[in-house]
Each structure stands twice: as C-alpha cells, then as structure tokens.
Amino acid sequence: AMSSDEFWLRVHGLRLADALINENKEIAATALQLVDDPEYIVQWQLAFTLGELHSSEAVRALVNLARKYPRDNDMRVAILSSVNPVAEEMALSLTRDYIENDQASLSAYVVELARIVGARNETAEVNHLLEAVLGYEEELTAKRLVLSALNEGLARSGAGLTAYLTSDRPSASVTQLAEKQFELAAELAMDDAAAESVRSDAVELLAFAEFELAVETLPDLLGAQVPRKLQIAAIEALAEQNETEVGDVLIENWKGYSPDVRNTVIDKLLTRAERVETLLNAVEAGTIKSAEIAQERKQLLQNHPNSEIKDKARSLFQVASNEDVAKVISQYTKALAGDTDRERGHQVFVKNCAVCHQVGSEGHKVGPELASVKNKSEEDLLIAILDPNRETQANFVSYTAVSQDGKLYNGIITAESADSITLRQSEGKEVTILRSNIDELASSGLSLMPQGMEKNITPEQMADLVFFIKKIGEE
C-alpha cells in the first residue's frame, strides 16, 4: 500500500505500518522514502507514523519535514506528536539550523522541543541542550527563547531552570558556560549604548542567573529613566528568582512606577504566598495605597486559599455587605434615567472592562461576550456589573491553583486534559499546569469579575456604559 500510485493508499499504508515499523526494517525503509512524497497529506501522515520508529533515520526524516514546512501548523502538530523519544536530538539539530543558518522560521519548533526536553527532565538531555545553546558567543535571542522554553518544561516537573542550574545536576561545562553567559548578560543589560532589543534579551536571561548577580543588576533597571519594556523585563526576571527578598526589591521603587509597571509588579507579587504577605504589609504600612490595587486583584486576595492572607486582605480592603451593595445599586439605578452617550460609554468600557471582555476586535475574551447580554434590561445589566456574584455562570467561576513550588495562578478553567488544566486570566493570558504539579486547586465560588466596580465608575459613567452595551452591534 505504501508503494501504491494512489496517494490515499499510501496514507492508509502508513497508518497500518504504525504497529510494525519499529520491528520490520523493510517497512521502515519503505516508509522513510515517503519523506519526499509529492503529496502533502502523505508527508503529514508520515510525520505521525514516525513517532513509532525509534531510530536516527526517523530523526532525520522529522527534521527534514520541519525544515520543509517551518510555518505549517498542521505539520508542526504531526511532527511534535512524534518527537518525545527523540526530542533532544531534534532540538539540537533544529537549534543549530536556527542559529547557524539564521532560520528564524524554525523558532516555533525550537521552543516546543526545548519545552519537551525540559518536561522530560533527563539530566543528560538537559545538559546537552544547554551546552549547545550556551556555547554560541552571540545569539542572545536564541538563548533567551531556548532557556525560557526549557525553564517552562522543567517547571512542569516542579522546579525551573534557576533551581536546576544551582543544583548538582549541571555538568562542569554547563556551569562554566552559564556563568560566562550571565556575566555578559549583566554587562549588556546595563549598556545604554546597546539596542533596546539586545538589552531586553540580556535582562530576560538574568532570570536564570544566581540571585546575587540578578539582584546586583536588575534593580538598577526599575527606575523611571529606563524604557518601560526594560522595566517590565527586569521585573519578570526578578520574579523568576526564588529568594524571599524579591518582594521587597520590587516594591522599593513603587512611587516611580507607571500604572502598567505597577500592575506587573502586583501580578508578580501575587504568585507566591510570601510575596503576597510582603504586598499586604506594604499596604498596611501605607507604602502602597489600597486605591492603587485594581479591584480584581483585591478580590483575589480576599479569597486567597491561605486563611491568614485572606483575613488580612479582607480587613485591609473591607468586603462590602449585601446591604451595602443594595444601597449602591439603588443609587446607580437613578442615573439610568439621565442623559447617556454611547462614545462616553465606550471610553468607560476601554478603561474598565476591556481587560476581560471583548467587543468586536477590542478587548480580551475572558468573560462573557457582551453582545450576548445586550438584550437584558438596563436594570439587570446594572446589577450584573455591580453585584457579579448574584448570578454566576459555572464556566466563569474563578479558580486558584497552587503549584508544588508554591506559585499561585488564578483564572477560569478553559481547558482540561488527562494531564493538565488551563486557566485563563485577565487580558486573555493563559497558563497551563500539569496535574502532577498541582498542590491545590480550589474554586472561590465567585465570578472572576470583581465586586466593587463603583469604586472606579461614577453613576453617570455607569449609565453611559450600560447604554454602550445596549447599542453593541448597531451602527
């Protein structure tokens, strides 16, 4: 069948070969010849079938297919489904292509393969990939991509790249290369004459350096004189470090942060219990004002799985009672009868709602489509905004996951498999966590939408927002 003139028979033959290809050399040889088949669908099926053949010839064939179709998503899925036993060999081969031959189109393969090598967590494989990547003197972007993906993969096993590099697992060669690379990255990060993209790559690499070097370099990039992109890269790099002092370092320059940078700092502080405590202590001391923390982040703190943190947050941020909410709704209902303006309502949406709702191409698809609720009465829309937990749809209930290494993730569950769950957070960000890496998963029983929107939206603005929602889809 694999030698037939009919392409559909060749496809069928490959499917039948799955169970025999690793045991029968003749079948394997015939299948491998189809790497140059004129029909795409035959090559696509071959990519799946090669997952059953554990040989260097299979690796070469998969690499050839990746080179031939670097941007084809369907082919990439087929190839990556077959690489687990040979991920290291493929990662080394395609990473060399990516760097030495400047084949940027292979970046998606390089990232996924590094992630798979990390998730396999085999010391020899990780060391081989690190030696190969760190051995290049230049190519900061490639190093950043590979190390970040490797870190994601390792984190699925409970500890990331920083922990790996400071353990006894790296070879002497890896340790030497890493130290040299991180020292160079620290120099480039602080070089005002270097291009911003180069400095940003260097900063991101410092996420995996020893804490002493990271904390000696990165805080100098948190000032208002530094471009926003570099500030955020430095914050994210510091947040990858495991030391408890990170929270204090991030808060130290709070007064000089822009709103976007402040939100990034808060999000990073929320990922670990000890950093949450640092945040709440800063609020209690007045270093960070309650009004400077977005309502959805306050709600996360008020429903934190750690009871001490939850109690302290509720004390600091004061949870409104049902009676208080009823008074607010009554006050805001009166404004619905006033003059309303669609464009003013649109501006309220952009400022307060687009982080989790999408209208047309604007905003992020986290909560319900607002077009689906436009037919509600004005009063019902108002109640849904001001009292989001009165009627919470099951698929928009907020969950908090605590990983084995103590990191916290909050969002709505958008996907589940036998091995993992995916949480979608504000701004549409998604995080996938292996079930084996989950220490605790708990529903808050509350909507991801925060209560207390009246603190940010006046009655008149709310009336404009309701009017805007009612007019969605109309010219």
Could you characterize the architecture of this molecule?
The protein is an alpha+beta fold and 475 residues long. The chain folds into three domains: 7-220 and 229-238, Leucine-rich Repeat Variant (Alpha Horseshoe), CATH 1.25.10; 322-388 and 451-470, Cupredoxins -  blue copper proteins (Immunoglobulin-like), CATH 2.60.40; 394-447, SH3 type barrels (Roll). It contains 23 helices and seven strands. It has helices spanning 7-17, 25-32, 40-49, 56-68, 73-80, 87-100, 107-120, 123-134, 140-155, 161-165, 172-189, 196-205, 211-217, 228-240, 246-251, 259-269, 273-285, 295-302, 307-317, 322-335, 342-352, 378-386, 459-470, and strands at residues 358-359, 362-363, 397-403, 408-416, 420-424, 430-434, 438-447. The strands form two sheets. A five-stranded antiparallel β-sheet has the order 6-5-4-3-7, with no helix packed on it. A hairpin with a 3-residue loop joins β4 and β5. α6 (87-100) packs antiparallel against α7 and α8 (123-134) packs across α11. It is globular. The chain starts with 6 loop residues before the first helix and ends in a 5-residue tail after the last helix. The mean pLDDT is 89.
